[in-house]
Design goal:
Blueprint lengths: L10 E5 L7 H13 L3 E4 L14 H13 L3 E6 L15 H6 L3 E4 L4 H9 L4 E3 L11 H12 L5 E4 L8 E9 H6 L13 E7 L3 H13 L8 E8 L20 H12 L3 E2 L13 E3 L2 E8 L4 E5 L4
Parallel strand pairs: 1-2, 1-3, 3-4, 4-5, 7-8, 8-9, 9-10
Antiparallel strand pairs: 5-11, 6-13, 7-12, 12-13
């Protein structure tokens, strides 16, 4: 499915499917959006406070539906992540998504929405969110603006990995914990024939191994074309450093776990892509065909390009 890119003066809707934000927290993002030449329309439930959540499930669902059904809104950025999107994702009819194509932007907990949209053939934008605009790097914000405008710039970055021949396939994925939590559900990620992007934050290293084993045993990793790894930040191990009585580390590091997985699946892998739970969370498309290719031998400088964007 092709989604129209934004033109100057177009409106971006902001809703909250997970946690709430305050007006002060949202203002820097509104200033940035206006500086880009776009308008912003904020759903009232963004500021509702129901524990950690931005209102009840019904109110958060309505906020998302209002963004989707409003003809003035051409793209949606979810205000922040945390938890809660899974409680509303099933309330959005397929017909509403297919008949109202517009860009969905966000990451982390928003992975459940990305997976739903991408499974239906609707592309999305993995990006920083309004709560994180003040901390985002200039490039992260620029890539989001360019993605929305159809001017996304091909990314080249230094990486560790073994992608020695070009790979061209759709890219899907997001936060590993959220993808794992959808196993067996209607929004379980469909990754066969695609490049799988993964990132995560604040997890035990053995939890990482458990989640990957779960995905592997469930067949989610069958037939993938490659692995692209973003940030795995604030990862913990069973050591005294993280409050355990004795040092009893899992053993393999995060990279070693993924290296072994790529060998088991016999697929190429690349690390260090600048997306995830950090300030250099650079925007890129999910659900669109991407080309990964090696630019320089022996140092694995990779180029990411979306041929049709």
């Amino acid at each position: 499915m092709e989604i129209p890119f934004l033109q100057p003066g177009d409106t971006i809707g902001i809703c909250a499917t997970a946690r709430w934000v305050t007006e002060d927290q949202l203002q820097p993002a509104l200033d940035t959006i206006h500086h880009w030449g776009f308008k912003a329309k904020v759903m009232p439930q963004v500021f509702y406070q129901n524990g950690q959540l931005a209102g009840t499930d019904k109110q958060r669902t309505q906020g998302l539906l209002d963004c989707l059904l409003d003809p003035e809104i051409k793209a949606m950025i979810i205000a922040r992540g945390g938890y809660g999107s899974v409680r509303v994702v099933d309330q959005i009819p397929d017909a509403v998504l297919k008949n109202n194509p517009k860009w969905l932007c966000g990451y982390s907990d928003i992975t459940v929405l990305h997976n739903r949209w991408n499974n239906l053939g609707i592309p999305t934008i993995h990006s920083t969110m309004p709560i994180s605009f003040p901390d985002a790097t200039p490039l992260a914000l620029e890539q989001l603006k360019n993605a929305l405008s159809g001017k996304w710039q091909s990314r080249t970055w230094r990486a560790e990995g073994n992608i020695n021949a070009p790979i061209e396939a759709p890219i899907v994925g997001g936060n590993l914990s959220v993808i794992y939590s959808q196993l067996g559900s209607a929004t379980q990620l469909e990754a066969e024939g695609k490049i799988l992007f993964l990132e995560d934050v604040d997890e035990m290293i053995y939890h990482l191994d458990r989640m990957l084993m779960g995905l592997k045993r469930a067949g989610v990793l069958d037939g993938i074309k490659g692995l692209l790894l973003g940030g795995f930040t604030q990862m913990k191990d069973n050591t005294q450093q993280f409050g355990f009585g004795v040092d009893n580390p899992w053993g393999p590091s995060v990279q070693e776990i993924f290296w072994q997985l790529s060998k088991d699946l016999d697929v190429p892998i690349a690390f260090d892509f600048p997306a995830g739970h950090w300030e250099k969370n650079e925007a890129f498309f999910l659900g669109k065909c991407v080309k990964l290719k090696t630019e320089v031998d022996n140092s694995l400088t990779l180029s990411m390009d979306f041929p049709s964007s």
